[in-house]
Amino acid sequence: MKLRMLMVSALVALAGCGDDDSSMMGDGGVDAAMQDGGADTSPDAPEADASTCVDLDRDGFGQGCAAGPDCDDSNPAIHPEASEICDGLDNDCDLETDEELEAPSCDRTEGVCAGAVAVCTGAGGFACTDESYGALYETDETLCDGEDNDCDGTTDEGCTCEDGATQECGSSIGACRPGTQTCAASEWGSCEGEVAPMGETCDGMDNDCDGEADEPGDLEAPACPLQLGVCAGSVRTCGGPAGWIACRGIESYGGDYETEETLCDGLDNDCDGITDEGCDCIDGATQACGSDVGACMAGTQTCIAGSWGGCAGETAPADETCDGVDEDCDGEIDDGLIAPACELQLGVCAGSTQSCAGADGFETCGADEYGETYEMEETRCDGFDNDCDGTIDEGCDCVDGSTQECGLSTGACERGRQTCTAGEWGACEGAIEPSPEVCDGLDNDCNGEADDNLVAPACALSEGVCADSVRICEGAEGWSECGEAEYGSRFVSDEDGDATPRLCDGLDNDCDGARDEGCVSGPLVTDDRDLFEPWVRNDHLVFLLQEDGQPDVYFRVLGTGETTRITETPEAESLPRVFGDDIVYRRGEDEAARLFHYNMNTGTESPLGDAQGTVASIDRGIVVYDQIRAGVATVRVRDLLSGSDTQLVEGIFSPDIRYPYVTGVNQSTGRVWLANIETGETLEAASESGSRPFVGDSTVAWSSGDNVVAAAIGGADPTFPMFAQQTATTALDRAGDVSGGAIVFERNREGSFGVFLTTLRQDPVAFMNDPSFASAQPSISGNLLVWTDNRNGSFDLFFSLYNGVAEPVEGALIVSEALADPPGDSDPNGDGVRDATDDEFVEIVNRAPFPIAMAGVTISDSTSVRFTFGPDSRPLAPGHAIVIFGGGTPTGRFGGAIAGATESGLGLNNSGDTITLRSAEGEVLDTFTFGSVSDQSIVRDGDEIVPHTSVEGASGRFSPGVNTQGRAL
User: What gap in Å lies between CA 409 and CA 443, rounded to an integer?
Assistant: First the structure.
């Protein structure tokens, strides 16, 4: 930037000196002094010191320039790094003219002219002459010598020959290939079969057959993409067989080019049509700054790196002082001053300040500053401190013999009277004074309120909802005995959740130190805002929370309580579903409704299709969802692992999945439809109508009219349903979810919602059916039942445990994966520390279509029992997994599996071991034997137990909670 400013200064200097030479070189020769590094002393050169670059033609070369001197500083095409061209000039400043040039081909390329090139004629440029074409060349062919002497592609025209004779014709140079002429009627015919010269193209070939390929003079180079600013006129370079080379950097656009413009030099260096973007000025320019008002004096700013520098040499504004001078340069003298306080500041003198007297400074305060009520010696009895000494009306208390009322007449207090004696008021006689407040219905402290500011004694009960409860002052009756009024509306004298379900609220309602006695349910997630539409799968829960006026999706790990907000949009989300670390949900309503997938591992959301959808469901990384276009519904299947997304069926909507089963509703018949996407088998229910279908491992359930219909899946006879049962009540029943053979649903009888559970072989059981509050939207995983419930005012999530759990038997529970030798660069349990003992794990999967009780189940190695599931252990839901680590604090989501740890390690042997699962009674449930495997887990692949990485499609070296391909269990 500094170089450009110096060039402008030099041009201005030359314009004013009256030199009429056409160039600094005068006669067009080379200045020898400049060539050998000496200083140019001709009258045309501006004077410059050693640190100044004078480059008049702005080609980067000149006197004092880092690149070196210039032999002609009036022509930017002439400098030491320029390419020599045929123009009679020394373009590259090497004292030679038109040397080492690449001559272009001549226009005539046939016959004896093949390979002819032009000669340089100096200022006349390149030209082709008879000498260029050689001694055999003739303007009009007369020789009969077997040559094409006039270079028109025909040999020996006008010459006689013997009929039938043939001869070669044309050229074999470059891309050309000769043909054949045949003599007929004593004349040579046309040249047949030759490949004639063509226009030259950039391909590394001699297309015009002149002996040279890709000669620049015969090619028209295409323009580079950038043509603005310093890139104007730039063209691409021929790269032979590679074709035209893409333009790049200064090689194509010149030395002034920048990818991102940083120079402030008056040029468009990045060729975007904008010059010096981001620059406030041209480097080296100056301008006045500051102010000349008052005591200020203006300075000068200089442009440096495209920005105006500081204001040098100025006298800047200063804080105003009382001196008769305008220091802050605002045109006013001694304005805006903060005057110092006067000496006296009590009484009427409070707030008085000194006055400014210009050059004499601030004046000493007097009567003018203190005000009209000021007295040097106080004589007035006016209620003011007139002499500002801190005492009001000295000697002026009252007139002897006068009387006045005194004291208070509020509450229990009464006024008295006082008499003035010797200028002072006497004592208050006959008054009743305030006393400390007590609970008696009186205003003892005479503040206008009875029984206020009392410290209430605590009630007898202080646990649970009674915490911090105190007795109530009942006025003249004294302190109350504690009861419901003191303990609150949630208090009962005897808590029994079995008799009164609304008391199952997570609180100690009878204040005895125990919560929810007799309860089979309780709060799971609570908030002041409404929570609803829960969906639970193994250890993962999703639900909606009314946030910012609209429902948003939340995710929760049940084992740790970790909760994550998934969505934050102005639109309403609904129908969330979870499996492992993947969540699907709907956003918007009616035609605007769209379906989405959210990945907890990447924290990214992606749409499911681009049309209206009603619901999406997920199981083991497989998503089914519907799309409605032009009134026609289709069900699509997306495999989150492979990324495939294909149409499953047309005319079906409202899908649900428990792999490999997919259910939905037939758009035409209204009947429930079921498919096995592994076998391709499809069936349709016999009911006349259906809605809200859900499918489990062995059962499908749906709403039909006011009832819930459930049916078994499978059996020898593929008819559907194999066995069906439906509720039959006067209430409105709606299906909610299916897990194994358990079906949960909501029942609305006369406006009161309740949560019920049934199976194909038992009558519905009411889990929560109290008409004093609403319980609805149930979901179930294994024996864990979750629903939304408003017994505590707002809607919260409540849970209960279903007792329909099977005892473990051989083959139902299996060891699916074990890690004996954790890799040294890994942390399988996610606690932040790699530990050879803590990071060992055993993964157990429930293969049965119903929940399995885990209490008392043991994990042993070949030596001893290493872990025993406690009596409160959660049953394992169908198809799901439990992962037990050797120690530490398992941290993470583990594909939704329940995760725990031993206190003493699993003791798995790296060189091989046998893991055995046993029931509480000691019966063997499964054995898992493996040999030496290093730095990876061992997995069950069908009937074989193999290293993790040997399984086809395996991802990583271990996979707690998910299978080898990464699908959640």
Answer: 11
* SS3 readout for 617-635: EEECCEEEEEEEECCEEEE
Only one residue has tokens 């193209």, namely: 201
913, β-bridge pairs: 930
Q: Which of 655, 567, 666 is nearest to 616 (CA)?
A: 655
Q: Which residues are CB-contacts of 65 (< 8 A; sequence separation ≥ 6)?
A: 3, 53, 54, 55
* Amino acid found at 9: S
Structure tokens at 357: 């007297």
Backbone angles phi, psi at 949, to 5 degrees: -75, -10
- The DSSP call for residue 36 is T
Asked whether 919 and 860 are in contact (CB, 8 A), the reply is no
β-strand partners of 911: none
pLDDT tens digit sequence for 428-459: 998 889 989 999 889 888 998 998 988 999 99
Cα–Cα distance between 481 and 473 in angstroms, integer?
10
b/e per residue 84-118 (b: at least 16 CB within 10 A): bebbebbbbbeeeebeeeebbbbebbbbbbbbbbb
Closest CA to 229 of 191, 183, 261, 184: 261
Tell me the C-alpha distance between 616 and 587, whole Å: 11
Q: Tell me the per-residue pLDDT of 46-67, one tens digit each, with 9 for 90 and over.
A: 444 445 888 888 888 988 898 8
Contact (Cβ atoms closer than 8 angstroms) between residue 571 and residue 586:
no
Distance of alpha carbon 821 from the chain centroid: 37
Of 422, 383, 434, 430, the C-alpha closest to 406 is 430
- The pair of three-digit structure tokens given for residue 598, joined into one six-digit string: 């959210």
C-alpha–C-alpha distance, residues 656 and 790, integer Å: 28
Q: What percent of the chain has pLDDT over 90?
A: 37
pLDDT attached to residue 736: 93
DSSP state of 765: E
Highest mean pLDDT among 194-208, 370-384, 462-476, 565-579: 565-579
C-alpha 965 chain-centroid distance? 27
Alpha-carbon distance of 536 to 926, in angstroms, equals: 28
Q: What is the predicted pLDDT for the residue at 927? A: 97
Percent of the chain with pLDDT over 70: 92
For residue 876, what are the contacts with CB-CB under 8 A and spacing of at least 6? 782, 813, 844, 846, 851, 852, 854, 882, 898
**3-class DSSP string for 272-337:** CCCCCCCCCCCCCCEEEECCCCCCCECEEEEEECCEECCCECCECCCCCCCCCCCCCCCCCCCCCC
Asked if the model's pLDDT at residue 642 lies above 60, the reply is: yes
Residue 612 CA to residue 530 CA, distance in Å, equals: 27
Six token digits for residue 112? 């004896």
The two tokens of residue 555 are 């995710």
Q: How confident is the model at residue 761 (pLDDT cuts 50, 70, 90)?
A: confident
Q: Are 837 and 829 in contact (CB under 8 A)?
A: no
- Token pair belonging to 228: 């603005």
User: What separation in angstroms does the CA of 271 have from each of 164, 266, 417?
Assistant: 66, 12, 98
| 8 Å CB contact between 337 and 352 | no
Spacing of C-alpha 569 from chain mean position: 14
Q: What is the per-residue pLDDT for 10?
A: 30
Q: How many CB atoms lie within 10 A of CB 426?
A: 14
Burial class (CB in 10 A: 0-12, 13-18, 19+), 752: middle
How confident is the model over 301-358, as pLDDT tens digits?
888 888 888 888 888 888 888 988 888 898 888 888 888 999 889 988 999 998 888 8
